[in-house]
Design a protein that fits this description.
This protein is of the alpha/beta class and about 400 residues long. It contains 14 helices and 22 strands. The radius of gyration is 24 Å and the shape is elongated. Bound molecules: cytidine-5'-triphosphate.
């Protein structure tokens, strides 16, 4: 009974894979989960609500306006009730609605209303899954923190062979078990994690500054994951358009100098420091209080070096596990290892920013962990959220190895 007492809201949308959602309901229930099923209008064309009612031993929901209990509003009540929401099978239509904030039926309304973690298990024709609009919607949802159960490859009901088959119920159940186990084990409980994110801005005058293309997505994903792993998180961020995750101490900075002060102040109190910010290496030597007026001819602006925050952390660190990031365009591992040594870090997360799917502004990344013990590990293309999870798993395992034997 690995899911004993877990409240799972299973949203079933219309596709032939609805038949697998029946087996999924049964398996989740057998593992002790309290499963409530919500069906879309099209899902009911494939299987009747009665099947899900019998398998879940709960009432099935399918109509926003069918309010059975006057004391509550059903879709809000269910959104709040769930420990986890699972959309399986998820059609291209439902994925599109959610990615665009559309709430025109009970499932899409509930999905917008819930604050519980949402897992989406797409199932559709191989070409539909490959369509740029579907891919874009999936990427948007991944960037919002939605998790996906990737469809498997095989024979599809439409006659095609390819990717689009709803993952087998056993595998989905195993993913849910792993998710709850990780959440409950809180592997970073009691640890203080300091993360920097975003670009810095180096002012020239009241209307101009130097900056770079960092959006902060990687650092914010790291903060969210660290917090979900139970850590006490401080996120020091340069200017971004992102909303800081809940339950995180947020320190907003602008320049490299401000970031330096914020980080050094908190260093001795931290167990893990991750420098994912893209800190400017140079700033204008002279800044102006009034707007610079243009003159005839060219303009030379003299730049001076900023402080290298990571290098300073490397000098001062005692027991902290320190991770730096390296954005490279060539010889990625070679430069990453040089940075690791020069800055006395425990790990450098390197990425080739000119590879498709990696680097600035994307929701995905392809990274290589270059570590102090000489090892390297390259991960395949994955969402920044997944990269963050893998990175913390790596750090946790390294820190365990370093713990003195009791
Ligand atoms: N970093 C820092 N302070 C700086 C500059 C960079 O802490 N003033 C950190 C970044 O947060 C990142 C790592 O150092 O973790 C990146 O290393 P860096 O040598 O600055 O990378 P690049 O600027 O790309 O270096 P280069 O131009 O030499 O490739």
């Amino acid at each position: 009974m690995t899911l004993q007492g877990k409240r799972i809201l299973l949203c079933v949308t219309g596709g032939i894979a609805v038949y697998k959602a029946c087996a999924l309901t049964s398996k989740l229930t057998q593992q002790g989960a309290d499963v409530k099923v919500m069906m879309s209008k099209s899902a009911k064309q494939f299987v009747t609500p009665l099947t899900f009612q019998a398998l879940s031993r709960n009432e099935v929901y399918d109509d926003t306006f069918d309010e059975k209990n006057p004391k509550v509003i059903a879709h809000i009540d269910l959104a709040d009730w769930a420990d986890l929401v699972l959309v399986a099978p998820a059609t291209a239509n439902m994925i599109g609605k959610l990615a665009n904030g559309i709430a025109d039926d009970m499932i899409s309304t509930t999905l917008l209303a819930t604050t519980a973690p949402v897992w989406i298990a797409p199932a559709m024709n191989v070409h539909m899954y490959d369509h740029p609009a579907v891919k874009k919607n999936i990427a948007t949802l991944a960037s919002y923190g939605y998790r996906f159960v990737e469809p498997s490859e095989g024979y599809l009901a439409c006659g095609y062979i390819g990717k689009g088959r709803l993952e087998e119920p056993e595998k989905i159940v195993a993913l849910m078990e792993e998710f709850f186990a990780k959440k409950e084990s809180q592997p970073l409980k009691g640890k203080k994690v300091l993360i920097t994110a975003g670009p810095t801005r180096e002012r020239l005058d009241p209307v101009r500054f130097f900056t770079n293309r960092s959006t902060g997505k990687m650092g914010y994903a790291l903060a969210e994951v660290a917090s979900s792993f139970g850590a006490d998180v401080t996120l020091v961020s340069g200017p971004t358009s992102l909303v800081p995750p809940a339950n995180v101490e947020f320190v907003s900075v602008e320049s490299a100098e401000e970031m330096y002060q914020a980080v050094i102040e908190r260093l001795s109190d931290s167990d893990i420091v991750i420098k994912s910010a893209a800190v400017a290496d140079y700033r204008p030597k002279q800044t102006y209080l009034q707007k610079m007026k243009k003159q005839d001819g060219d303009l030379m602006i003299e730049l001076e070096r900023t402080k290298d925050i990571l290098k300073e952390i490397g000098k001062r660190k005692t027991t902290q596990y320190v991770v730096g990031f390296a954005a490279e365009t060539n010889d990625v591992e070679h430069y990453a290892r040089q940075k690791l040594e020069k800055k006395n870090a425990d790990m450098i997360v390197a990425n080739n920013v000119i590879t498709a799917g990696a680097g600035f502004g994307t929701d995905t990344n392809i990274v290589t962990f270059v570590k102090k013990d000489g090892s390297t590990k390259t991960l395949p293309l994955m969402s920044k959220h997944e990269v963050a999870e893998k990175l913390f798993e790596e750090i946790i395992s390294d820190m365990k190895e370093d713990e003195p034997c009791k």
